[in-house]
Here is the input.
Amino acid sequence: MKCIISIELGTNAVRVFAFDLNGQVIGSLKGYCPTFHAEPDYSEQDPEQIFITMLYVLKNLLNEKIHPKKYKVASICFSSSMHSVLAIDKSGNPLGNAITWADNRANKETQELKASSSAKSIYTATGTPLHPMSPLLKIAWIKNRDKDRFRLTSKFLSIKSYIIQQLTGEYLIDYSIASATGLLNIHKIHWEPAALRYAGISEKMLPELTPVFASAGKLKKAFQNSLGLSDDTKIIVGSSDGCMAILGDGVKGDGKATITIEDSGAVRVMGDKVLQDEKRRFFNYLLTENCYVSGGPTNNGGVIFEWFTQQFGEFKNPFDIEQSMQELISVASKVPVGSDGLLFIPYLLGERAPIWNANARGAYFGLNIKHEKIHFVRATIEGIIYEIYSIGKILEEHRNIKSLSVNGSFGTIPFCTQMIADMFNKPVRLRQNFHSVSFGSFLLSAIEMGIYKSLDEAVQKVELPDQYKPQKQNHSVYENYFRIFERLSTGLVDEFESIAALQHKDAALKKIQAQENNNMYYQ
Amino acid sequence: MRLFPQILELGIKKNISIQFNSFPVSATNGIRLYYVMEGKFEWSIHSYQYVLFPGDVALILPGHSFGSPEGVLEIGSFTWIHINVQQLEGGEIILGKWSSLSESESQAIGKLLSLNNSPALFNFGDAGKILKCIQTELFSQEIGYHTRVNHQVDELFIQVTRQLTRQNNPGRDFPKTFMNLEQALRQNLSHQWTVEEMAALVGLGTTLFNERVKNYSGFSPINYLINIRITEAIKLLKRPDISLTDIALDTGFYSSQHFSTTFKKLTGYTPSEFRKNHLRNN
Here is the structure.
């Protein structure tokens, strides 16, 4: 019996799934991989630790679920988070850690490029919003501020390129990950000269561009031996987590969109045309030729409810956040829709789409003397979903959306899924306990193996059995409050800027004081 | 106190007027513990300033400075104990023969004390009770007081360790707690960590600790540690200037043989093969 393995390289964990050829899950395992913050704006991962974790998890899954049942691994398909940058030297060894999507060190470069005359043409050509997340701007930062590293760099890789190179020896980057670097012309599928010039690099300093279905070459002999895999095991380059999530839900074409809410979130559509937005609020990433995944990302997804739970949850069992979250959600379900007029703006981490404002901050609004603690719980969840709704609204300026699919650990909590259905006033489909990113990888492998004739055929075969129907009366309550939410999120630009400036100033002062305190006593 | 070689000093002070030019900052070789009963004291511990209120404890490690930064003793009362301990080069603290703690528990407590960087323990009334008990026993000298005092000093070490790990890990934010643990492991990778030590470091019993770590990370605590060891070893292998034996010991393997077997099992390469492949192009 043949099986297909998917490996997702995420910013929290490496997840490995095994599927049979019908798409049924044989088994899955995950391994945690930390993100380091050496400075407040920094967000890095250790490429060697990701590699070792990946080997460890893969090996355990093979030994526990695959080898004992005599499955033969036909292919291993990769996905990873977008926007990572890893510099390597001429021997192929990493120069420092990989910089992840959440890293904001390139803020100054971003402001400069945004204000320049080439901003519009670079965004239009590459599809990647001008934001510190973009590898284009991270590489520019390294060029400007970490000159030694830049000088020693022979190539700038993505995390996935590095991991695949370790396994097979080939330096490759797939269309999807490449299209999220800010360096790829997504219309003609070649590296964009203007972007390369801005980053200060040549094509030779990037991995070779390949379609997502491409084979990355053979596993090195040592890994064949240690993992117990044969030399005809196909290593498929694969795509990004974002593209895989929408593919895994089978959402392609008119009328459909996917909502993903993990720690962060996104609303996405997939089709054969890019979204042309005058205000440059969307990303347009490439799955394959003539197939674009477009949408808007939010920083403030499930991570905000986790923050709330950590502050206000009961924690009857130490460190049991799941139970504390469940208790809060059951409390929230007893509060009327609209939280009796308490509104929450969830921008604790600044915000990307639709307002693209790093200075945005959170707020509770509309508080009156009758509000109780329980209102805050519901308002917090509603605020997170209003933000998702606000991304959906701007997408609807370009696409007609009739139905939604939802995935991600926070979005698939039934209470949240129903709220999404009500707020959007659209039916929502999902499959419980279903990992869309991994299933997307399965579909990609299955297409490559010829089990499906085409992407379109694969997408049509995806069934999401559970359905949430919108409740009209709830929708109209949400709609009224949403108008105020929208005005608050767009109308407080000056206030956001002032408070963020004060917060930065205070944080800087504290840091200096701590240092002085330290110095004084060591003298 | 020849009966109690571990107790260097035991005292209680009630200060009814502000005293200038007293209580200066100084360092000693023992562990010092000050428990505030009344008033408010601004003390400097290991170069950082803390404000302590009744029920709070200042815990001063061997060699760390402690005292009033301005040389002023404020109004109030407090009680203290100085305890004689040994300190190894790496900073680990070892309790003496007087302790009836098992060797592994004593080691774990010593390790955790040496790793602690928050010397002020707040709302820690239990420490006051233990000090009071030691004083009463020493004063009345009833039958069995020798054993009881020794037990109470052990009890003090146990409670202090539990309090500081709980205070550093309030039981809400496991990701943050896990990051603290991960950092401690990386900084002391050559140490032969036990699960008991790791669990105590985050303020959990081993059963719950194993479950939480497995659930959160997908790894058992020891396997997570091995993963970090191999990760760091890979980085060292890419540098030509360190011997395989040194790499093995620096990253916490028992021997180069143990390193080699573990490394090959996971990566398919022996450390020397791996090194050859990655230095080739230099």
In short: The first strand of chain B starts at residue 7 and ends at 15. The interface with chain A takes residues 44, 47-49, 65, 171-174, 177-179, 182, 203-204, 208, 212, 216-219, 223-224, 227-228, 230-231, 234-235, 238, 264-269, 273, 278-282 of chain B (CB under 8 Å).
